[in-house]
Amino acid sequence: MKASTTIARSVSLAILASIGTHAATTDQNSTMLQEITVTAQLRKQNLQQVPIAVTPLSGAEAQARGIHDLDSLAQFVPGLTMSPFAIGQSVISLRGISNNDDGPGTDASVAVFVDGVYFGTVSNIEQQLFDLSQIEVLRGPQGTLYGKNAIGGVINITTTRPAMDGLHVHTRVTVGNYGRHDFSGLITGPLGDGWAGKLVVSTRKANGWVNNVVLHTTEKNDNTKSVRAQLLHEGEHTEWLLSANGSYINDEDMARIPLTHETLFPLPLLQTYQSFCGTAPNPSCATNPYNGYQRQTSYGTSAKFTDHLNSNTDLISITAWQRTYNQWSMDSLGAVLPLGSDVFDNDKELTEELRLVSSPTATLHYVAGIWLSREDRDRTRLFLLPSINAQLGITPAQDEHYTGVDRIISKAIYGQLDWRFEPRWTLSLGGRYSYDHKTMDNYSFGDVPTASGYGGAVGLGILPNSLINRVADGWGRFTPKVSLSFTPTEGVNLYVTESEGFQSGGFAASPTSIVDTRPLQPEIAYNTEFGAKMEFAHRLRANVALFDTNYKNLQIQAFGPRPGIVNPPPNYIGEFETFNAGSARAKGVELELDWLATDRLDFSATYGYMDAKLTNVYVPNGSIYSLLGGPGPSACLANPAQTGCLDLRNQSGQDMFRAPKNKGSFEARYKLPLSGHGHLETVADYSYTGSQRGELEPYAIQPSFGLFDARMTWVSPTDEFEVSLWGRNLANKAWLAHVYTIANEAFGVYGDPRMYGLSFDWKLRP
Amino acid sequence: MIRHENAVHPQWRELNAFTFLDPRVARRFDEQVGGDWRAHELPTDQNRVPLAGGQIVVKDNIEVAGMPCTLGTPALRHYVAARDAAAIVRLRAAGVEIVGKTNLHELAYGITSNNAAFGPVRNPHDLRCFAGGSSGGTAAAIAAGLVRAGLGTDTGGSSRIPAALCGIVGFRPTVGRYPVSGVALISPTRDVIGPMGRTVHDVAALDAILADGLPAALDAVDLRTIRLGTPRQHFRENLDASVDRAFEAAQRRLREAGVTLIEADLPNVAAVDAAVSFPVVLYETRAALEAYLDHTGSTVTLATLCAQIASTDVKEIMAQVIGGAIPEPVYREALSVHRPALRTLYRSYFAEHRVDAILFPTTPLPARPIEGSDRVVTLNGVDVPTFATYIRNTDPASNAGIPGISLPAGSHPPADGAAAPLPVGIELDGPDGSDRRLLAIAAAIESTLSP
Is B83 in the A-facing interface, judged by CB distances under 8 Å? Predict the structure, then answer.
């Protein structure tokens, strides 16, 4: 059956998807791979027809793989990694590009959308995924249709529509190890002529799995709640969708642990940790002497209005408002000294998008739109010194803290035209002009340096200077895209794309002098991509993408001691610096396979190979420091080339951060009918992520890891009940989810150990 | 525009006036705003910054213990001075509080303060325009109402030019009047600390302390006894219309007040001045900066410092300094022949015409937009070199070593119809060593010229 892109067909497929149980690649009653509909180009299309590397994940697939938040999504998407800097605050990296500056002046490299609403700095909230219809991960710069700052890619989340056809209820109760008990409930149905509503609620609760043997507490627990309510009105030519969401996280410390002892850092961090927890990886043991926490509340509302101007054309307006309060406090060093670091965030976002989507003829489609947003970010970073100074016997100094208040106005105008000028050829031409303006107020309160030198004897010198200023700047760019698709034969679609991506400029976090408050330049990406989307006999789907992306002016944040310091005190551990690093290049190949081997057995596989290098990068005040056994800090500053010194300034030719060379996953699904007693679905998957560079230091490496998950579900004959036995990380591997450095020593956060449990689902349908 | 005595410019944060602000002051400001440092609504009434009384700002090439001394250049952005400069010791002993370090033209080698590393210092009268330099930060902080007075330095006009462009008072004392240890000099022959302030009395108060213990009050001066020379050649050539208007109006007021104005030129002053000006400073800078870097104890070498210079105009000049553009014989000649000739020129002028001081516009034009002004600015429809044009009138006094003071002449709308009226300054240069008398005359003239 030829894939057609008429709206009616797409709508009917979307309805099927929205009812939500099995919009998966397999259909209970057929031996054909079902068409996957995506909205990657802002209109409904067959995945196989879209000249973009897209990884789709349906609600059912997410459930089968135990994906309840964006972090666990990464295992199944080539080129995507998530590194949790803090609970619910992941650095998202896609095809080698990420942004690790955690201040209010810069943006994430990957844009997250939920039902068309852009989530900027608030993208790290606990997303409600129980009513997930589909997630699409668009890999590579999306500089045309998506605002804003989608230089790495886009994660597009769509939820199910409120049901017009009758009452649907879906509840799930999960119990598991570490005292896990989760509940999710969804209720949706008509509320009158043309009206429907939906309410989804989820809670997740589990005890911590890390024992802090110093504080005698448990850490890394799970305590989240999220809710979404929607109201839908379908008129004759118009449609309203009103949404409201809320989420809440209240978690304990995230258990950071020291990983290395390579430098002359004056405290025996690793030694102390190992004396308590042993030398082998021991994820469930922690020694952080400062008890941290995280609390986050987010809520918002959106309104989507669609006017079907005629049978070919829709006018859509999406207005949204979101507010997030985030407060976390974490132990920084993982052992010995209670050095806490606090962050207080207060962010607001207002977005408006107006979009025209039209298919005036069978061979012509276009999308055009305007995008506006305003974000207000207020973030305070506090380095808690009284505790550290008490330990060192020094009269406590005032805390060092930095507050950045950033007001961001973004505007964009975009359009894309897809023209099937020959039966087998389609040309896409698109472009976007984006303009971002940021006004940054910096308030930095540091130590008063004393005569004993930089930072003084009382402080850490992370913020040696006090400063108050306001800086403002704006950046605009036109990012075009050209794509040519060719269908040589039915089921095969080839494409070549040239496109640009843009990440606006910004301002560095925790500036240590007025010089560091100057604006950062925008990042630009130039992407060339070849793709093949192939389907054979409706049983095998193979999608391949080869990409070569050049990045300019990457914004990189590093932390460490800087040269040029006069008489650094022994407790000087470094300072933050964000800079435009030069250029980088990521090239690779991504493969996604779905194979319906039999009507009961199917396989999926993903594989990504990526060679991502910093090509011309010189860190302006890069760390020069003495390794253990080296000649000492002053000697190394004077002669960085000598043995025992590490000079991190020249990064040319080094790997990009959070860009594993190899990454892949393999999944097998088996469906066993139980003649009259429903059926049994078994899913087993294995995902592998290659080693990744975490920071500038060569030993700050996040090692490779492989995780094995499985799930067995009994589905009742009427589909009303499901009982699942599931396990994640069944081999109980110790794996690091995030690696970072402080004072040139590496610290890490482990990922979840073996988790298993039982889930009960009840579904009511009209 | 400052209307009220204690009003603070609402956009003071955007002026880039500071390289460092004392945290206690920063905290006080923040407490004034909301009480809790976590409450971050931007202040609605931003005029309540409590900076009054004996508080000054200090240009970031004069060392204040415990504060950075960056010279406005990236390589030194983390250098913190261990000891107060000698001048600062005197000020502290007199009870003056130093609130922060002000931004400057990088390495004090320019007259706009368009600092590519710390941000261009914006003119409080028109944020698009520069504040002048090299002591732009001090001028902007005073003109914005944050403090009443502060310290700049002056090599060829660096305290007088920003004072003129920002509508405040800037003073250049006789060379050697104040101690210069702890100041990052670029030319020991020409450099002085230059006090700047809201009024002449603010500047005179600083002068008294810095010159160590002279009585603070200025003598009263009867303007009817005052004779001022008003040279046309060189000092009043090719003036911007607003400067011309302001200067003519000032002369009118002075004549009405009884001042005798004598139009007489300093013969050939431009040529003699040129023979001293760059040869002296370009030659002396290398040794002066090396001595300063040595004093800091920092690992930064002159080569590293130059490599990290952010402002292209300064980078170019420093390349000349490092490259030895001025051979020693030329320098020696400048010092032993041309400088004495210049000093003789001034001495003869004062004696022959029996004038108490020389009067002329501080700069031929008011401030111009920051954008595009690093090399050239427009004057009477023609592009002229920025540095040479602004420094033209202030330069000779600095090479002769005599004192000079710039006063606001009043704001007049610029001829090209730009929106905001920009300040214009008039300068008085006095004989060698006549500092207190010059200040007294300036105070009398100031009260005559005030609206």
Answer: yes
Report the residue of A378, A405, A439, A465 to disrupt the B interface, i.e. the one with the largest count of B CBs within 10 Å.
Answer: A465
- DSSP assigned state of A661: S
Token pair in block for residue A35: 């068409």
Answer whether A453 sits within 8 Å of B80, measured CB to CB.
yes
Catalytic residues of B: 59, 134, 158
| Res. A565 pLDDT band, cuts 50 70 90 | low
Structure tokens at B333: 């000649």
Beta bridge partners of A317: A305, A354
Tell me how far apart the alpha carbons of residues A354 and A361 are, in angstroms, rounded to a whole number: 22
Show the domain range for B286: 12-449
pLDDT in tens, A700-752: 999 999 999 999 999 999 999 999 999 999 999 999 999 988 777 899 999 99
Looking at residue B445, which CATH number applies to its domain? 3.90.1300.10
Over the stretch A372-407, which tens digit does the pLDDT of each residue have?
A: 999 999 988 877 665 555 555 555 445 567 889 999
Contact call for residues A248 and A296 (beta carbons, < 8 A): yes
Which of A346, A448, A514 lies nearest to residue B23, judging by beta carbons? A448
CA atoms within 13 A on the CB side of B129: 22
Residue A514 to residue B296, Cβ atoms within 8 A: no
Q: Is A492 exposed, middle or buried (0-12, 13-18, 19+ CB in 10 A)?
A: middle
For the record, the structure tokens of A44 come out as 């409904």
ipTM: 0.72
Number of Cβ within a 10 Å radius of residue A8: 9
Q: Does B108 map to a domain?
A: yes
Would you place residue A278 in the very low, low, confident or very high pLDDT band (cuts 50, 70, 90)? very high
Tokens of A95: 């095809």
User: DSSP for B103-156?
Assistant: --SGGG--SS-EETTTEEPEETTEEEEE--SSSHHHHHHHHTTS-SEEEEEESS
3-state secondary structure at position A462:
coil
Domain count, chain B: 1
Q: What is the pLDDT of residue B51?
A: 34
Average pLDDT, chain A: 85
Q: Is residue B2 part of a domain?
A: no
Q: Does B350 touch chain A if contact means CB atoms closer than 8 Å?
A: no
B76: closest CA among B281, B291, B309?
B309
> What's the pTM?
0.83
Dihedral sign for Cα A125, A131, A136, A141, please. negative
